[in-house]
Amino acid sequence: MGTVQMTALRSDASLLSVSNIGPVQCEVSNAFAAWARYGVDRAAQQLLGSPIARIETYGSYSCRNVAGTARRSAHATAGAIDISGFVLTDGRRISVAEDWSGGTSAEREFLRVVQRSACRRFDTVLGPDYNQAHRDHFHLEGVINGNSFCR
Ligand SMILES: [Zn+2]
What we know:
By secondary structure, the chain is an alpha+beta fold. It has one domain (about 5-150). Helices cover about 30% and strands about 30% of the residues. The chain has helices spanning about 25-50, 95-100, 105-120, and strands at about 5, 10, 15-20, 25, 50-60, 80-90, 95, 120-125, 140-145, 150. Strands 2, 3, 5, 6, 7, 8, 9 and 10 form an eight-stranded mixed beta sheet that branches. α2 (about 95-100) crosses α3 (about 105-120). The radius of gyration is 14 Å and the shape is globular. Zinc ion binds near residues 80, 82 and 139.
């Protein structure tokens, strides 16, 4: 199975970096690159008045089971990415853990908009509204194939 290591992705104005990420399946990385530019960077410009400099992750490839189950997580095959936060070019940092409920109204809206836009590109998208295990990140898994599971 082909995987790629993402380093810098194209944004509207320049490049954005992705922190803490390992190898990712090629088609997932393509969906991620499109989401980063058209979903995240544009939402940040519109809602927060600044482009994105960096997307922070809890990584991609890790051989482990789904929390609380014996089932292998999609992370075991480098098919999923956990997103923890976003750093803007003006220096602001928007984190899922702190700003999903506690940020300004624009920051809260930004996080919901980027999650919804992920649901148009990934097969499974889980966030803080899904369960306690996802209170601090968005789980983006697989490439959309029909209806996505979006919570
Ligand atoms: Zn995950």
